[in-house]
C-alpha cells in the first residue's frame, strides 16, 4: 500500500509565510521539497490591541467548523473529527507552544503512525499567530490563501483532527492533520 503525506505551513503574526512539502511514506522515509516561500503582508487592522486568553477547545471547534463550511461550499464531503487524530494534533501544538519543537512539521510521520488507523494518505497544516482577536479564523484565512494549504484543505481526506495550544507570550499554535482512510478500524 502506498502512503502519501503532504505538508503545509502558515505563519500569521503580521506576515504569512508558506511552504508546501511532500513526503512519500511507503518505506517510512522522508524526502522534503519546498515549493513556495513568498511572504504576504496581513493588514495591521486585523491585529488585536491586547492579548486575549484563548479557549483552545473552542478554537479547535471553530477551525473544524470553518473548514467543513468551506468544503461544503465547494461541494466536497465534510470531514469527520477523530479524537485520536486530534490528540496527536494537540500534542504537536503544545510542543511547539512550549518550545519543545520548532514551529514546523518535525515528527509528522511519527504523529501519523501513532494514530491507530489504517490510512491511505495524510497531510498536515500548521499555523502560528499572535495578537489576533480570533486566531482560528486568521489561521483558516491564511490556509485558504496559500496554495499548499488549500490543496490539503480540499484534499481527498475523510478524517481530521485539530489541536490548538497557546503559551504565556500569547502565541497561538494550530495543527490540523488530515487523513484518508477507507475503513476506520484499529491496527
Tell me what you see in this structure.
Mean pLDDT is 76; it is low at 1-52. Helix 4 packs across helix 5. The strands form 2 sheets. Strands 3-1-6-8-7-5 form a 6-stranded mixed beta sheet. A two-stranded antiparallel ribbon has the order 2-4. It is α/β, with parallel strands linked by helices and 187 residues long. A hairpin with a 4-residue loop joins strand 7 and strand 8 (171-180). It has helices at residues 56-73, 83-97, 108-113, 135-145, 147-153; strands spanning 4-12, 15-16, 18-24, 40-41, 80-81, 121-130, 159-166, 171-180. The chain contains 5 helices and 8 strands. The longest helix has 18 residues, at 56-73. Pfam families: CAP. Residues 65-178 form the SCP domain. Keywords: Signal. This is CAP domain-containing protein.
Highlighted features:
single chain, disordered N terminus, 30% helix, 187 residues, globular
Summarize the structure.
The protein has 187 residues and is of the alpha/beta class. The protein has helices spanning 56-73, 83-97, 108-113, 135-145, 147-153; strands at residues 4-12, 15-16, 18-24, 40-41, 80-81, 121-130, 159-166, 171-180.
Class derived from helix and strand content = alpha/beta
Largest sheet, described in full?
A: 6 strands, mixed
What spatial order of strands do you see in the largest sheet?
A: 3-1-6-8-7-5
Which bin fits the share of residues in helices? 25-40%
Note the overall shape: globular
Kindly, what is the distance between the CA atoms of the first and last residues, rounded to a whole number of angstroms? 15 Å
Mean pLDDT: 76
Query: What is the ordering of alpha helices and beta strands?
Result: EEEEHEHHEHHEE
Number of strands: 8
Number of DSSP helical runs: 5
For the CA atoms, what is the radius of gyration?
A: 15 Å
Q: How large is the share of residues in beta strands?
A: 25-35%
Unreliable runs, pLDDT <50, ≥5 residues? 1-52
Amino acid at each position: 500500500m502506498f502512503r502519501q503525506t503532504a505538508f503545509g505551513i502558515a505563519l500569521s503574526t503580521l506576515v504569512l509565510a508558506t511552504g508546501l512539502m511532500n513526503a512519500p511514506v511507503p518505506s517510512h522515509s522522508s524526502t522534503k521539497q519546498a515549493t513556495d516561500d513568498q511572504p504576504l503582508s496581513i493588514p495591521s487592522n486585523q491585529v488585536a490591541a491586547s492579548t486575549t486568553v484563548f479557549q483552545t477547545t473552542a478554537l479547535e471547534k471553530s477551525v473544524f467548523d470553518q473548514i467543513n463550511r468551506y468544503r461544503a461550499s465547494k461541494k466536497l464531503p465534510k470531514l469527520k473529527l477523530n479524537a485520536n487524530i486530534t490528540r496527536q494534533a494537540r500534542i504537536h501544538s503544545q510542543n511547539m507552544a512550549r518550545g519543545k519543537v520548532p514551529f514546523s512539521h518535525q515528527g509528522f510521520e511519527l504523529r501519523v503512525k501513532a494514530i491507530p488507523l489504517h490510512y491511505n494518505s495524510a497531510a498536515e497544516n500548521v499555523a502560528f499567530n499572535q495578537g489576533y482577536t480570533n486566531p482560528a479564523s486568521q489561521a483558516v484565512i491564511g490556509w485558504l490563501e496559500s496554495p499548499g494549504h488549500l490543496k490539503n484543505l480540499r484534499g481527498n481526506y475523510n478524517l481530521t483532527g485539530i489541536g490548538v495550544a497557546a503559551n504565556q507570550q500569547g502565541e497561538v499554535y494550530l495543527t490540523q492533520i488530515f487523513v484518508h482512510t477507507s475503513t476506520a478500524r484499529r491496527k
